[in-house]
Amino acid sequence: MFRKVLVANRGEIAVRVIRALKELNIPSVAIYSEADKDSLHIKIADEAYCVGPVSTSQSYLNIPSIMSVAEVSGADAVHPGYGFLAENAYFAEVCESSGVKFIGPSSEIITLMGDKARAREMMIQAGIPVVPGFNHDPEDLDKTREKAEKLGYPLLIKAAAGGGGKGMRIVHNSRELERAIETARSEAKAAFGNAEVYLEKYLEEPRHIEFQILADEHGNIVHLGERDCSIQRRHQKILEEAPSPALTEELREKMGATAIKVARTANYLNVGTVEFLLDNQNNFYFIEMNTRIQVEHPVTEMITGVDLIKEQIRIAAGEELSIKQEDIKINGVALECRINAEDPERKFMPCPGKIQNFILPGGPGVRVDSGVYSDYVIPPYYDSMLAKLIVWEEDREKALLRMERALSEFIIKGVKTTIPFHLKILNNAYFRRGDYNTNFINRRLKTED
Ligand code: MV4
User: Which amino acid residue places its CA nearest to atom 13 of ligand 1?
Assistant: First the structure.
């Protein structure tokens, strides 16, 4: 096992990782920017080092500075959390060559999955269902036009280096095609430094279902069921649940087996998420694989009893998975609401500032993962998530009631939050029946934009 682990992140995920380290009896090293001197993760870590000024490029993304902290503190492993350097293949490579274990997959796997077009090709070769589509060759627009006609509109242009909805563009007809590709390419070039795009048949009413997988160095791969992440606004997930109300046990087994096959095809290691789109005929298609721990991992922890962060650390230390697929039982229902410091009445504008009062909900089946506290001043430089409110209950109906109860108990004064918006979702008749897809917020909830 590791001697000491550097946590290369901030906020609630840094707190979450440090908690796992404490329970494994591993000393933790926090890093922080000059804007984060009063952050909770610093208070609970065994050691903490400032890595640079407020700008993320000079602090949480500052690889030389972070590697110096690893060296000075004697950390022999780094946990990247999510965001920042979590899916940066170069960072994983620097760790590998410095003898500091990167807690995650190898830099090769990160590179492969970071190229969504290449990952897609690989999965087609392996017989995994993917959304019908093709890669665009910038030297041969005629070919693209021909393939597009054959596939039929609407189509969706995606950036190979994108993911998570960044750099996507819908094309409704052949007249729009050429311009849309040119715009998508220049946006992709500007955002990711790579103009490459591919096209897919645009699914109109998909659900976004992702499977959690665990893979060790000894060839064992298991899945921990799915999360339904269809409730999104502008590609930001807002509320997640597990298991998905849309899946039968039979479909879960089929998709789970496919997720394992995806991981095996890529020679995957550590925890990962296989993303699928599910259409209204229950056809499912692989879209991408995330090589990090995800924000919404707690809902999977609640329904399986598996601590995913501890598993990441154990796998990285070379240990064999202690659980077999047949031991994994999905128990009850978990929901997660992301509580952001944003004003839902003003287009979800971020509301940084001082939290005057912060009183957590509690009681049976309630979990809060957060990095803030009363009197904490939210810096304006980073993301606006204050807390994740997670509840568990034995069935969906009861879980919804418990979430409503916990949301109404939560007191956050001084900043606007998304709590009222969550209550609106929970009170929507379609949502209550589990009848929703990725268009839910636009279609079923009235917002100003
Ligand atoms: C799609 C799609 C429809 N058709 N692909 C958005 C996130 C990224 N991981 C994939 N995304 C989508 N890909 C095809 N071929 C619709 C979306 C999509 C979406 C997916 C999940 C959750 C919310 C979404 C909102 C808009 C579009």
Answer: 165
